[in-house]
Amino acid sequence: MLTKREEYIKTFFSNYDSDEAEKIAKRISAIGDNIGFIGVNVSQDKSKSDKRKHKYDVWIAKEAKKDIGVLDLAFDVRLIIDWAVSTKADLFSYNFEEANEAQSEWHQQMMLKYDIEDLRVPDLDMERVIFRFSDKTHFLYLLNGGDLKYEGKAMGHCVGSNTSYAARIRGGTSAILSIRDGKNEPHVTMELDVKHSQVIQIQGKGNQEPISKYKKMIKEFVLFATNFKDIEKAETLKFLNTNFI
Predict the structure, then answer these.
(1) Maximum separation of any 2 CA atoms in the chain, in Å
(2) Residue 191 pairs with which residues in a beta bridge?
């Protein structure tokens, strides 16, 4: 069953058979769900909140109509929407390639703008350590708005320079977690959709995929969070695909 919005999105793909067009419309809608609330003024009205989540579904559909491969670039789409929301850019005046180039330049500028010479490791709040990994050195840390600048600078991504992340934490729509080592230095940043209990994004250093060492830790935490008892059986971890977390 499609929503009215999804029915409209489906019309962009009339060159596909009906079932395939419906799958594409659902896939575009899922991208909006995974991106989460757009903006900083979080409404308690579900219909308004959902509308803001899917503000750019039509743009995504227009670009996917030109090249269906755009739907395989959900992370790039997220960065594009971060840029469009933060700069109030008219995204509909850009094609995918232009928007991707613009967001890349903007994110680089933001990282330079918020650069700090003295990157001191902040004090650790033990009450926000929510999980300790089996290596007994690394832990999972729940970030607050004040942690984001350090996290973004140390990790080389925009979580500290894009104010929408702090707004989502304040509004209770997102939780941002960091895998930290024994020196309280970050290695992986994760954003969770609190309402739907979904992982929105997982980023390693410089917006890259986390290295295998930290992927294993993510799997370990997922097994713990789902009450899996055999967490110490290393063989089991190989069967958990982090692409579906």
Answers:
(1) 58
(2) 176, 201
What share of residues in the chain are helix, strand, coil (percent, to 5)? 55, 10, 35
Helix (H) or strand (E) holding 108: helix 96-113
Question: Which two three-digit tokens encode residue 99?
Answer: 């928007």
Distance CA 204, CA 199 (A): 14
Domain ranges within the chain, ordered by starting residue:
4-113, 126-244
DSSP string for 166-190 = HHHHHHTSEEEEEEE-TTS-EEEEE
C-alpha count within 13 angstroms, C-beta hemisphere, residue 88: 1
Q: Domain 126-244 belongs to what topology?
A: Aminopeptidase (3.40.630)
Paired residues of 174 in beta bridges: 193
Q: Distance between CA 175 and CA 179 in Å, rounded?
A: 13
Successive 10-residue mean pLDDT values, the chain, 245 residues:
89 94 91 59 49 77 94 84 86 95 84 57 88 93 90 81 82 91 92 83 86 91 73 49 44
> At residue 46, what is the residue type?
K
Report the SS3 class of residue 153.
helix
- According to DSSP, residue 197 is labeled T
